[in-house]
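Worked example 2:
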Amino acid sequence: MQYFLANKEKLLEIDLGANKNETKVTRTSKAISKRLTFFLILSLCQLFLISCSNENKDSISETTDESQYQIYYLDATQSSIVSDTYTAKEDKPKTLISELMGVLSKNPQSSAMKKAKPDIVVMQSYRLTDDGRLTLDFSPEYNDLSGVMEVLCRATIVKTLSQIEGVDYIEFTVSGQPLMDSKGKPVGIMESSDFINNTHAENVYVTVYFSNEEGTALRASNLRITYDGNIPIVELILNRLILGPVEEGMIGTIPENTILNSVTTKEGICYVDFSSEFVNYNPNINPEVVIYSVVNSLVELSYVNRVQFTINGSIIDDYNGIPFNGFFERKLELIDGSR
């Protein structure tokens, strides 16, 4: 009996120990389970936050891209157009037109760019129809723009506003009347692809000076040239001078076989470098007429005030008896009929 009781107590002790171990295992399992659940919830939260962050970034990126526009300006030489990125505040087409026109009317931040629209030219009103036709009405001063500068001004406006959703075509009017070209014909509707820096070119009219038949004075020739923005307008003008006149009563001023080595414009001064053939003397033309056929032709451009010549990269002191190492300005008294 005692043996049985003793054994029974041991069995009880074993059962109690087993129960304690089972309790410990159960508690440990529960603790591990809680930790796993916590880490799982934490991981899910992190994934959710990352997903939301990416969505927000995408949303911000999309919003930024949609509100960015290229504003077109003149380059430093005012002979072609360049662009700068602008983030618009408005998002509706009609309010965007006013905003972007306002930006075009201000000087760009970069000193390498210049606004094309003069302050005196004011947009008086505009109208956008449901079929995407935008009509811009300008003050009478717009008609004072001519030649290359008018084309470049028009190009910067059309290329800027054409980016607005819902604007498919643009037309200009001046005080309610259609804008006319140099031949007196309406310019009509325009789109971005009609202008420079693309596959289309623009015909512009320039005034180039040749010699009269006596070689004693300059005669003006209004020529049409094709301008696509790839070659500076000053270079096109000089090439036309080298080719010579197409009208009767005029003779070419540039000596035969002369090559234009380079031409650049900076701060109102046009630097022209010819080959050595330019200094060849032509007894049929006054040397002063030769020089000022170049000078007066280039100064017709609003951004050229003076001209400096070099021959094969070097300044020479004398050109057939005329001092040649300085800057030349327009000489109106040499133009035939101006005296």
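The first strand starts at residue 68 and ends at 75. The chain has five helices and 15 strands.
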